[in-house]
User: Fold this.
Amino acid sequence: MKNHRYCLEFFAFYDHTAIQRRVEEMAAQGWLLEKPGNFLWIYRRTEPRRLHAAVTYFPTASPFDPSPSQGELTMEEFCAQDGWRLLARWGQMQIFVSQEEDPVPIDTDPMTQVETVHRSMKRAMLPGHLVLAAVILWQLWFQLLQFRQGPVGFLASTSSLLGVPMWLLLLLATLYEIFFYFWWHRKAVRGAADGFFLPVRTNRLASALLLGGAIFLLLFSAIGSRSRLGILLGGCALYGVTILLTGRVREMMKRRGAPKMATMVVTIGLAAIFASLSVWGMVAATIRGNLWREHPPAETYEFSGHTFSVYHDPLPLTVADLTAPGDVRYSTQAEREETFLLAQTRYSQDALLGEACGAPELTYTIIEVKAPFLYPLCLASVTKEDPLFETQYRPAEAGPWGAAAAYQMYRHGEPTSWYLLLWEDRLAEVRLEDLPLTPQRMAVIGEKLRTA
Amino acid sequence: MPREKFKTLTQQMYYILLCLGEECCGIDIMDRVATLTGGAVRVGSGTLYHLLEQFLAAGLIRETCAEGRRRSYLLTPEGRALLEQEYRRILAQAEDYRRVFGKE
Assistant:
């Protein structure tokens, strides 16, 4: 028989009404609260009993205090006088229970209660929520920058595309908490001035839906992508370890009576160091293990003391379609990203290093536009002039390619072997190395890329 | 409009200050208020603790002695003046009542 029960609870920190009700309900079922937390609340088995619960706040308390302050102990004695027994502390929150039939409430003056709750919220929750909102806004700004820099890649990437609604949902959930609190506080102050308590009635379903929606989008964006799923799971595991480790260290320092400031500095410092190391470790592991690649290489080879990857992905257009490849060994790689708006596939056929010099090579990207209204945006993005490398696409003859329109790239005013071919619902950029263009080759390339 | 702090006293504030007209230990105030009002007014333990801290910070009461966590308090002249002001406000309200409904 289990002696502990772990429950996911979505209480707002100031929602003393809901917390009291929940503690009483659980006690009636034979589960007494042992440890409250951000989401995970731990209850231990006990005899079912009818208890009265009271949630009150002590604004100057801190989760880093080595032990309860004299003030907290004094208040605990006052409460004991009225039959209230302390059940749990969680930062500024204190949860008491009483077995008396009709105990005198701990808070009997609404004005004092509202002020105490507000002082606790200002110290505990509101700064954290405001920092979180600022971080989310920064993330959304970063997403906007990514979109402006490369709208095609952004719209073809599930993680980028779903990242926007995910961050928006998180922002809404955070703002909902902040605004609902201030709405309640404003009404509670008015109520207290008239001498009555205003119960908190937060809509936890709305918060849970917003958070659940964000988590769903995060998971959905990682499904089907080996690298994103790996990074997501690795990130979650490291976050869990960080929370566990810093929590253990904080509790150990508190048990040993370390001063509040020392505990705070060590805990926060440790969290920052561990988070930085985790990010650095994940980046290093990603690079060393080629984890950013969607699929592992078919084989590897050594050249000049370095290891290189070889892929054997099928390509719609290969060097063999255009010329006899000889006995040159190639790596053929295809990387596809796709959303409901558009798909972008990058193909490359590169001769292995050390192979015959001047072997023909191919690189091309096909953009399939599923939402026609995005076509002008994609075209503008692809043909955008690059002032750094002084490149620009200039119109070229489309007929030989069998395309609706064609462009050739010029660099420093000189023509290059980069071409852009347009059809009704797709754009294809192709680069040829050591493959002189002939009308036959142009026709083959156009046909293959049109139907790929 | 939310009332300005201590401009007018809530019932709980009023009775806590009233009890401290005589030196009294914090924890005994709850019983003293209940006795004084015949059980009509009960001061909660959390409310009592926080109000004592606020009264002390505002100079309305002073600490007279402390034995461990057991501390006693007494009303200061400022506290007495505030209590007097509240008393006059309540009297004025009673007078208004009498003017409307006559002497009862």
Remarks:
- The interface with chain B takes residues 54, 56, 70-71, 73-75, 77-79, 81-82, 84, 104-109, 111-113, 115-116, 189-190, 192-193, 195 of chain A (CB under 8 Å).
